Amino acid sequence: VPKAQPVALITSPEDTQNYEVARQCVEELALYLKPLSNTRGVGLSSTAQSMLSRPMQRKLVTLVHCQLVEEEGRVRAMRAARSLGERTVTELILQHQNPQQLSSNLWAAVRARGCQFLGPAMQEEALKLVLLALEDGSALSRKVLVLFVVQRLEPRFPQASKTSIGHVVQLLYRASCFKVTKRDEDSSLMQLKEEFRTYEALRREHDSQIVQIAMEGGLRIAPDQWSSLLYGDQSHKSHMQSIIDKLQTPASFAQSVQELTIALQRTGDPANLNRLRPHLELLANIDPSPGKKQANFNSLAL
């Protein structure tokens, strides 16, 4: 990058100094994208083309495009830096997990809540049968609904039982998919809420509930892993990524930093990644809400 002319819009010597520090940082970060510049027309999935994952590349491009001279651009840069830090923590946690243990820990967490996942094919059929029974607005007792699903599922999946299907229904119940009507001296009636009477809507809420259980259990699972676990293929990565993004809260970043610290303690931290903790905590304290200009730009420069 050729040496830039002094920026006339910034008059304070201190602000000019901070601007120069920040600009140089962004230029150094932009170099991580350089391997891609000589591969026009080639897919970006090859690890040889960049040190960074696709989500990291996208977040870094956002940061590089922020206009640091303007206040709004600096606020955007703060949020972009926070987002980049958050993704970094997620990827580091994934690197320090045992993939074999991950799935067993996930299903153990699901079962601990009285729910069950029966495998991609069987779960899909079970959900479609729940929909078949309730998509017209019918209200059934849990017992009748479970029996309906089991009877139609058994020819294809002999292992289907009232207990296992009951646990699938419990998963939907936890996800608040049902409107429940209590009856005196009789079992309650369950009716699918109107917004969940299509397979896509019901499946999204079902998947969100499983992701939430994983997050509550301190498990971090990549979108491609989620796609394999829940669908048995790699074609649902973007669907799972959007669910993960929606479940993120401002507090998720700080929680992830804690989880990374625990993961590093388990492995002995050979790369001394724990030194990043104060920097990550600083990024986690940035308010990610759009339009809030509470962060002092000097703190980013420092």
In short:
The protein has helices at residues 13-30, 54-64, 71-95, 99-112, 120-134, 142-153, 162-174, 199-216, 223-231, 237-247, 252-267, 277-284, 297-301, and strands spanning 139-141, 178-183, 186-192.
Keyword list:
302 residues, mainly alpha, three-stranded antiparallel β-sheet, 5% strand, disordered C terminus
Give your account of this protein's structure.
The protein is mainly alpha-helical and 302 residues long. It is built from 13 helices and three strands, in the order αααααβααββαααααα. 58% of the residues lie in helices and 5% in strands. Strands 1-3-2 form a three-stranded antiparallel beta sheet. The protein is elongated and about 75 Å long. The model is unreliable at 44-48 and 292-302 (pLDDT under 50).
**What count of helical segments does DSSP give?**
13
Mean pLDDT equals: 87
Task: Identify low-pLDDT runs.
Answer: 44-48, 292-302
Structural class: mainly alpha
Amount of helix: 55-70%
Could you give the order of strands across the largest sheet?
1-3-2
**Overall geometry:** elongated
Describe the biggest sheet?
3 strands, antiparallel
How many individual β-strands?
Answer: 3
What's the helix-strand series?
Answer: HHHHHEHHEEHHHHHH
First-residue to last-residue Cα separation: 22 Å
Fraction in beta strands:
5-15%
- What does the radius of gyration come to? 24 Å
Protein name: RING-type E3 ubiquitin transferase
EC number: 2.3.2.27
Organism: Ataeniobius toweri
Domain Roquin II: 194-249
